[in-house]
Amino acid sequence: MSANTVSRTPSPFDCCRQTLRLNRFHWLVTGSAGFIGSHLVQGLLELGQTVTSLDNFSTGRRSNLDDVASAVGSAQARAHQFIEGDIRDPDLCHRVCHNVDFVLHQAALGSVPRSIDDPVLVHRVNVDGYLNMLMAAREAGVRRFVYAASSAVYGDYPTLPKTEHAIGSPLSPYAATKYINELYAGVFARCYGLPSVGLRYFNVFGARQDPHGPYSAVIPRWISALLRGERVTINGDGETTRDFCYVQNVVQANLLAATTNEPSALNQAFNVGVGQRTSLNDLLRMLRHLLAEFGHEPKTTEPLHVQTRAGDIRDSQADITKATVALGYQPSYDLIAGLQEAMPWFIRNLRQQPVPAAG
C-alpha cells in the first residue's frame, strides 16, 4: 500500500452486504410492489439473493416491479418470484413463508388520514394481516421477522428527539395499529420464540413514491405541483417539522436488522430516520432550489395554507443512537443528498401527472 493510500474501515453495512454476496438466502418481501418494498426487492437481488414477494396492488404498482427488473437485469430478475395476493388470506401467508429464511414485512395500509376515514379496513390489513404473517413465519421456522413499524407510535409524547423507550398516546387508528404490531411481536417472541425486529420509519421518501390520491406523501406531491406550475398546499402554518429519511437508508436498516448477530438487537424496535428536523416551509424552499438546479425553475406561486390534518403530530425527529449501537445503522443520505439522487426520477415521472387534492 502506498503512503498516499487511505484505508477506510468497512462500515457495518459494508460487512453486511459482503456477507450477503457470499451467501444466498431466501427472502420474503411483503408489499413488494410498493415504494419501500420494491427498493428492498431490488437491493436484495443486486446482492445475489433469492426473493419471493407478495402484493395485492391495493396501493402498490406493477410499474415498480417492472422498474426493479429493468434495474437489476434479466439474470438477477430470474431470482425473484412475485405472487399476487393479500396478507388477509392466512393460507396464502403460510404458502409464501415456506422455506424462507428472512421475512421483510412491509405490507400495510399507511397514512393517518386514511385510517381516520376507514379505521376498520386499516385494522384488518395492518393488524389481522400482520398477525397472519406472524403465524405463518412462526410455523415456517423463519430465522428473523423484520417488520415496518412507524414513528406514529410516539403520538402526543412531546420530547424531541424521539427515543424508543418513551412513547405517548396514539393520535390515529393507523398509529394504534402500528403499536399493536409491536406488542404482538413481543408476545410472539416470548410465547413462541419467533425472533423479530421492528423498524420505526420516520418520513421516508424516494423514487417510485406515488404523488396520487388524497393520502400521498408530501415530497412527491409537491414536486409534481411545482413541475406543473401549480400551487402547493401546506397543512397548517408550515412550521411543522419532520425527519425525512431517504429510502436507501431504510434498505440499509432492513438488511442490518435481518442479519445482525447481536442478541440484544432482537425483539426490539428501532428508529429509522436521519436525526435531523426540517420544517415544511424549509422543505418547500429546498425543492424549489433543487428543481432550479435541474433546469426546472418553479413559478413563484405562494403556497396555499389549509387547516392542519386531524391526527398529525406537530414535530418529529428520530434519535438513532439505539439503531447505531445495536444494528450498526449509519444513514448514508441526509435530506439534500436523497433529494439530489431521487430528483431525476421525480422529474421524469411526475412532470405530466396531475396533482392530487390536498390530504
The span between the termini is 57 Å
How many domains? The number is 1
Largest sheet: 7 strands, parallel
Global shape: globular
Q: Supply the helix-strand structural class.
A: alpha/beta
How much helix is in the residues? 40-55%
Strand content: 15-25%
CATH arch. level architecture: 3-Layer(aba) Sandwich
* CATH class wording: Alpha Beta
Reading side by side through the largest sheet, how are the strands ordered? 3-2-1-4-5-6-11
Low-confidence stretches: 355-359
User: What's the CATH topology label?
Assistant: Rossmann fold
Q: Compute the gyration radius: what is it?
A: 20 Å
Write up this protein.
With 359 residues, this protein is of the alpha/beta class. The protein has a single domain (12-350), classed as Rossmann fold, CATH 3.40.50.720. The chain is 43% helix and 15% strand. Strands 3-2-1-4-5-6-11 form a seven-stranded parallel beta sheet, sandwiched between helices. A two-stranded parallel sheet has the order 7-10. Helix 2 (35-46) links the parallel strand 1 (26-30) and strand 2 (50-55). Helix 5 (90-96) packs across helix 7 (119-140). The N and C termini lie far apart (57 Å). Residues 355-359 have low confidence and may be disordered.
